[in-house]
Structure formats: C-alpha cells, structure tokens
C-alpha cells in the first residue's frame, strides 16, 4: 500500500508555498483522502490550490487537538470543500485552552470558532476519546497514555475551568496510524503527550511493532538534552525507520535528531510531498 503525504501548512515552506505557524497534512492511503489538521489560517487552502488539490475530494478530516494552530484553518477548509464532511476529534477540542510563556499573561490558544458555525459550513463532528477506525488499515489512536518517565506536557499549556487556570492534560492530543505491509506510518499533530508515548499507542491499537515512519510535530522545541537523548534512544529501540519532523520540533531538536538518524531523518514543511515506502 502506498501512502502519500502532502504538507499543506507548516512553520516553514518550500519555494512558492505559504508558511504559517501550525500544521496540516493531506494523507492519501487505502483508497481514502484524509485531511489531518488545518493549520492556523489560510495556508492549507492557499497551498492546496498551488498543488492543484481539490479539497472537495477529501473524505474525512481528523483534528489532532484543539489548539488554534491546528484548527484555525478549519473554517477556510470547510468553505473550500462546500459539502458535509465528518470531522474526527476528541471532545476536549472545545476546552478553553490557553498558553503562557514565562511571566507573560496567559493568552487564549484554543479553537477559534463556535461549533455551530463549523456545522453550518458542513462539519459533522465525531467526538470520542476512543480510537476511530477509518478503514481496515487507517485509524486514530484515541487518548495517549503517559507511559515514559521523561515525557511531560508543557507546563505553559493551560485550561480554564470555572474561572481558574489549570495545567492542560491535553487528553485531546491524538495521532493517526496507517497499517501497511512495510510497517506502521504514524501521522503526528504535536505529540504533546510525547512522541514515544504516541508511537507506543500506535503499536498497541494495531497490534504491530514495526514503525516505518513517523511524520509531523514532536513537541521537542523546549526539550532538555536528557530528554532528547532518551527520545532518540527509544525511537531507535522501537525500530523507527524514518522520522519526518515538523512544526513544534524546534531547530535544536531537529538538528539533534538529524544527527542521530542521518539519512532516515527529513524535514517536513509546507510544500513537501512524500510517497511511502521510499525507494
């Protein structure tokens, strides 16, 4: 089975493509076309036009979590699709999410649109904490258990509950896995609950061990050297063959992982298009 990944929005971009903070990837596999996240604003729709992609051909949308840099393009995307479409996500995408850096005041960082608006544009939400099987070979991972002793959620990410700012557990953080005959291909949003935890969940829900590729955000931009070393060691031990880093990986972490994985590491930005397995 071939898996085609076209990156429509990311922090950096190839020539002629638009970059914006966030992530959106179009995944084609097993006879389905799935839009995984929508970026922060207009980049996904803009870059789809440059690619010559008709977004009305998308079969489903998967939202990795409720932060605005993954959901902010949803209104534009739905407007371009002009049809009813299932949107798969965790119920907590509607939580009141905030972010804070250092001593700065917390700023709203959650879903920028009301549910009614998106539904009027065609969104039909399937909200669940459980894995969702899209085809015989494609599924979302559901909630990611926190298993490792070194992966933790960014303490600057908050959720407003009853007027109080509390640490956001990011239970809505999910990923998508494609089970191919050459191994698992895991599509990552931000990996807020840890890339290793996420890949372990992919192995659990599929019952398969071999991970061919993990592509997307790894949320290692503020990781310590110790965490980077443990992450790389675990990814190697798990047998990850290819690693495509995007978005919240950060330059320092990307450089470290590139050194550790060599030719098996690649940068995935706006305008990237990959066909797996690699030849």
Reconstruct the topology from this structure.
Elements: E1 3-9, E2 24-29, E3 32-36, H1 43-51, E4 60-62, H2 68-71, H3 74-81, E5 85-89, E6 97-99, E7 107-108, H4 115-120, E8 123-127, E9 138-140, E10 157-161, E11 164-167, E12 176-180, E13 183-188, H5 195-206, E14 211-217, H6 225-237, E15 242-246, H7 251-261, E16 265-267, E17 273-276
Parallel strand pairs: 3-4, 4-5, 5-8, 13-14, 14-15, 15-16
Antiparallel strand pairs: 1-2, 1-17, 2-3, 6-7, 6-10, 9-12, 10-11, 12-13
Sequence of strands across the biggest β-sheet:
8-5-4-3-2-1-17
Helix content: 10-25%
CATH architecture: 4-Layer Sandwich
How many distinct beta strands? 17
Strand content: 25-35%
Low-pLDDT residue spans: none
Give a quick account of the main beta sheet: strands, pairing sense, barrel closure.
7 strands, mixed
Radius of gyration: 17 Å
User: Any idea how many domains?
Assistant: 1
CATH class equals Alpha Beta
Per CATH, the superfamily is: Ribonuclease Z/Hydroxyacylglutathione hydrolase-like
Shape category: globular
Number of helices: 7
CATH topology: Metallo-beta-lactamase, Chain A
Alpha-beta classification = alpha/beta
Along the chain, the helix and strand elements come as EEEHEHHEEEHEEEEEEHEHEHEE
Distance between the termini: 13 Å
| Mean pLDDT figure | 97
């Amino acid at each position: 089975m071939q898996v085609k990944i076209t990156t429509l929005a990311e922090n950096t971009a190839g020539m002629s493509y638009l970059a914006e903070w966030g992530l959106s990837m179009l995944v084609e596999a097993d006879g389905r076309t799935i839009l995984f996240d929508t970026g922060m604003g207009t980049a996904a729709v803009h870059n789809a036009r440059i690619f010559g992609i008709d977004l009305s051909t998308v079969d489903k949308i998967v939202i990795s979590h409720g932060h605005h840099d993954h959901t902010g393009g949803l209104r534009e995307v739905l407007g371009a699709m002009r049809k009813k479409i299932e949107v798969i996500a965790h119920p907590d995408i509607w939580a009141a999410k905030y972010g804070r850096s250092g001593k700065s005041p917390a700023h709203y960082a959650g879903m920028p649109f009301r549910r009614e608006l998106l539904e009027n544009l065609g969104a039909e939400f399937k909200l669940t904490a459980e894995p969702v099987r899209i085809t015989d070979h494609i599924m979302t991972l559901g909630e990611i258990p926190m298993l490792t002793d070194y992966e933790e959620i960014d303490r600057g990410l908050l959720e407003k509950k009853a007027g109080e700012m509390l640490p956001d557990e990011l239970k809505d953080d999910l990923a998508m896995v494609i089970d191919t005959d050459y191994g698992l291909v895991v599509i990552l949003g931000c990996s807020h609950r840890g890339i290793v935890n996420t890949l372990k969940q992919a192995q659990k829900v599929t019952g398969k061990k071999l991970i061919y590729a993990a592509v997307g955000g790894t949320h290692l931009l503020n990781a310590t050297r110790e965490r980077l070393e443990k992450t790389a060691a675990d990814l190697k031990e798990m047998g990850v063959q290819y690693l495509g880093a995007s978005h919240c990986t950060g330059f320092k972490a990307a450089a470290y992982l590139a050194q550790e994985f060599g030719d098996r590491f690649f940068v995935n930005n706006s305008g990237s298009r990959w066909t797996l397995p690699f030849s």
